[in-house]
């Protein structure tokens, strides 16, 4: 089974060990940044950020709550539709709170821009962004994450939370899918 799954992968872009190591570094930068705050609301964007969120939050040493939002923009295709719709909202009030948005990847920037604006409007004290991956070549909307794990080239990647058609999220590495899978 496992082999069949990995057969669909053209190449491994970031292996498990590099992910763990880099995420620890991001967490220490984030700990340093928030060290004078007594609470942080960490918001993971479903579903792509789940692995990153788990790995990152294990290394955060500030009191924090873990929240999730689900927004839709991609569907089954590999291109952003430009429409960002909130499918599942926060369970909590973020007025005067420090909010850290955790995203799997920044591509065109549409998703994050819409989300950041929406959370700022609710009266958060601050809204910061950490993204595991960044594809700067694809940016349509100017947005900069406060922390980025890895800059990657313009290729469609899966694994470590990221899917193609809901599959491959469980791979422990970031890989490039063979074109034949989606063409
Ligand atoms: P944006 O709004 O920045 O165009 O899209 C961001 C979202 O699109 C990401 O959160 C992710 O769900 C999806 N996405 C963008 N690039 C990729 C990619 O290379 N692989 C996968 N699996 N999803 C991607
Ligand atoms: Mg996402
Ligand atoms: Mg997706």
Count of all domains: 1
Q: Could you give the count of β-strands? A: 9
How many helices? The count is 5
The neighbouring-strand order within the major sheet is 4-3-2-5-6-7
The assigned structural class equals alpha/beta
**CATH topology title:** Rossmann fold
Q: Round the Cα radius of gyration to an integer and report it.
A: 16 Å
**Major sheet attributes:** 6 strands, mixed
Helix content: 25-40%
Instruction: State the assembly state of the protein chains.
Output: single chain
Shape: globular
- Going by CATH, the architecture would be 3-Layer(aba) Sandwich
N→C terminal distance: 23 Å
Order of helices and strands: HEHEHEEEHEEEEH
Strand content: 25-35%
Enzyme class: transferase
Main location: cytoplasm
Cofactor: Mg(2+)
Family: Belongs to the purine/pyrimidine phosphoribosyltransferase family.
Features of this protein?
single chain; 183 residues; six-stranded mixed sheet; 5 helices; 26% helix; binds guanosine-5'-monophosphate; binds magnesium ion; hypoxanthine phosphoribosyltransferase activity; transferase; magnesium; magnesium ion binding; Hypoxanthine phosphoribosyltransferase
Polypeptide structure, described:
It catalyses: IMP + diphosphate = hypoxanthine + 5-phospho-alpha-D-ribose 1-diphosphate; GMP + diphosphate = guanine + 5-phospho-alpha-D-ribose 1-diphosphate. The protein is α/β, with parallel strands linked by helices. It has one domain (2-74, 83-182): Rossmann fold (3-Layer(aba) Sandwich), CATH 3.40.50.2020. Helices cover 26% and strands 30% of the residues. A six-stranded mixed sheet has the order 4-3-2-5-6-7. It has a three-stranded antiparallel sheet with strand order 1-9-8. Helix 4 (110-121) links the parallel strand 5 and strand 6 (126-134). The longest helix has 18 residues, at 16-33. The model has no long low-confidence stretch (mean pLDDT 90). The protein binds guanosine-5'-monophosphate and magnesium ion (MG) (2 copies). One magnesium ion binds at residues 45, 48, 103-104.
């Amino acid at each position: 089974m496992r082999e069949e799954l990995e057969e669909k992968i053209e190449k491994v872009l970031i292996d498990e060990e590099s992910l763990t190591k880099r995420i620890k570094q991001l967490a220490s930068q984030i700990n340093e940044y928030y060290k004078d705050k007594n609470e942080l609301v960490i918001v993971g964007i479903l579903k792509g950020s789940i692995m990153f969120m788990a790995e990152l939050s294990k290394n955060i040493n500030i009191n924090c709550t873990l929240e999730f939002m689900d927004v839709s923009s991609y569907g089954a295709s590999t291109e952003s539709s430009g429409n960002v719709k909130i499918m599942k909202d926060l369970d909590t009030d973020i007025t005067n709170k420090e909010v850290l948005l955790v995203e799997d990847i920044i591509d065109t920037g549409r998703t994050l821009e819409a989300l950041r604006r929406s959370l700022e409007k609710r009266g958060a004290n601050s809204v910061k962004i950490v993204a595991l991956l960044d594809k700067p070549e694809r940016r349509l909307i100017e947005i900069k994450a406060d922390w980025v794990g890895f800059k990657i080239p313009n290729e469609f990647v899966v694994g470590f939370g990221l899917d193609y058609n809901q599959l491959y999220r469980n791979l422990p590495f970031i890989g490039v899918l063979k074109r034949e899978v989606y063409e």
